[in-house]
Amino acid sequence: MSVLRPMQSVPHGAVRLLALCGMTAPVLMLVLWTVASLMRPGYDQLSQYGSELGSGPSAIIMNTNFVVTGLLIVAFSTSAQCGRGHFFRGDRTRAPHGFLRFEPR
Asked: pLDDT tens per residue, the chain (105 residues)?
């Protein structure tokens, strides 16, 4: 098993895929939250907590939502950690995310 060191090079495609996980997680959370709330009769998003959807007949949707989005966020944080050394050195060709680049003046 290989352990990544802070300045070790990471394949650009892997970092991009893991960064995509970070962009997908909040959208997926919102969509599945909406589906779970629509499947529960009498649920009011303004007066009830979202975690209440984790119990009852359609609990599998919200519980799966929590697990999957949690894993996507962990994958994204791995991406940010792996690309961090390149980002703070100012090496624009190896920045962790295509939309987030450091340009020294």
From this structure: 555 555 455 566 777 788 888 889 999 999 999 999 999 988 888 898 888 888 888 899 999 999 999 999 988 887 776 655 544 444 445 545 554 554 555
Give domain limits for the chain.
Answer: 33-40+59-98
pTM of the predicted model as reported, rounded to 2 decimal places: 0.63
Q: Exposed, middle or buried: residue 65 (CB in 10 Å: 0-12, 13-18, 19+)?
A: buried
Q: Residue 70 CA to chain centroid, in angstroms?
A: 7
Provide the 8-state DSSP code for 97.
Answer: B
Radius of gyration of the chain (CA): 18
User: Nearest Cα to 51, choosing from 66, 32, 39, 70?
Assistant: 66
**Quick check: 74 and 91 in contact, CB under 8 A?**
no
Residue 43: name the closest of 26, 61, 25 by CA.
61
